[in-house]
Amino acid sequence: MADKRVYTFGNGLAEGNASMRNLLGGKGANLAEMNLIGIPVPPGFTITTEVCGEYYSLGKEKVIELLKAEVQAAVKNIENLMNSTFGDPTNPLLVSVRSGARASMPGMMDTILNLGLNDVVVEGLAAKTGNPKFAWDSYRRFVQMYGDVVLGMKPTSKEEIDPFEAIIEKVKEEQGVVLDKDLSVEALKDLVAKFKAAVKSQTGKDFPTDAYEQLWGAVCAVFESWNNERAILYRRMEKIPDEWGTAVSVQAMVFGNMGETSATGVCFSRDAATGENLFNGEYLINAQGEDVVAGIRTPQQITKIGSQRWAALQ
């Protein structure tokens, strides 16, 4: 087993590259490569696919112990590049956590955004950005994603309503709003409190407040998702070996939900349907990643000509 379990990237430098897909997963290898060719990718690090194997052979506690020093050094690297501190109430660094196997696989863990927030840090983020609505919206999203993905607060059947969505719908009804983005700061604070109460009543545990405890929870959830029902089924169908494992990529957050001047989106250098050399994509103003794929709001189209027009106007 190699001693190096964590590969960092950021600021045009990366310890990995596109050829290291087997070790860093598709996502980790490509994030490293994008850094090397000069694309402004937020800094982060990737925990290798080999660690996923260790997770199943050695167990959770042992793997955290093996990773601890390397992960803390890698977080320090992000802190230096982003000029902010993980878990710090006045100048907080928030991160996203994603899974990424060698082959693209449905059924793996969903992305967790805004990790590192708690009741104190959210106030610091609001003060730092001068935007309390953004801070509380980010916190609301984090508790929901973490509760769903790490703490297992999922609907158990197709008929059952998602516990968090049920709470959101009720609050929106009380507030008389249709879209999540139209909720007031007070309503968002109310949502966070209700979400955390739901976590406590359903899991019997308090929502974790320590940034590193949140991070380890998310990292382990990625490894565990490698062996969930959907992932195992997909591997059987596609003849993907169980021992390949998944990597984990942790990255500094950049925000699409800071108001009407920020957005989130996805774009392609080719037409996905025809393979034609046509740049295309879609975006949503004042939103975060999950909103684009959730299908609740209709995204706007990105086209080359539209982008050129926008650039000319600027």
Task: Give a structural overview.
With 314 residues, this protein is an alpha+beta fold. The chain folds into 3 domains: 165 residues, Dna Ligase, domain 1 (2-Layer Sandwich), CATH 3.30.1490.20; 80 residues, Up-down Bundle (Acyl-CoA Binding Protein); 51 residues, D-amino Acid Aminotransferase, Chain A, domain 1 (2-Layer Sandwich). The chain is 48% helix and 16% strand. It is built from 11 helices and 11 strands. It has a 6-stranded antiparallel β-sheet with strand order 2-1-3-8-6-7, sandwiched between helices. Strands 9-10-11 form a 3-stranded antiparallel β-sheet. Strands 4-5 form a two-stranded parallel ribbon. Helix 2 packs antiparallel against helix 3, helix 5 packs parallel to helix 7 and helix 6 runs antiparallel to helix 7. The mean pLDDT is 92.
Strand order of the largest sheet: 2-1-3-8-6-7
Give me the CATH fold name of the largest domain.
Answer: Dna Ligase, domain 1
C-alpha termini separation: 52 Å
Strand content: 15-25%
Mean pLDDT: 92
What class do helices, strands and sheet pairing give? alpha+beta
How is the biggest beta sheet arranged?
Answer: 6 strands, antiparallel
Q: How many DSSP H or I helices?
A: 11
* Secondary-structure arrangement, i.e. CATH architecture of the largest domain: 2-Layer Sandwich
* Whole-number count of domains: 3
> What would you report as the Rg, rounded to the nearest angstrom?
20 Å
The CATH homologous superfamily name of the largest domain equals ATP-grasp fold, A domain
Total strands: 11
Uncertain parts: none
CATH class of the largest domain: Alpha Beta
Q: What share of the residues lie within helices?
A: 40-55%
Secondary-structure element string: EEHEHHEEEEHHHHHHEEEHEH
Question: Based on CA inertia axes, which overall geometry fits?
Answer: globular
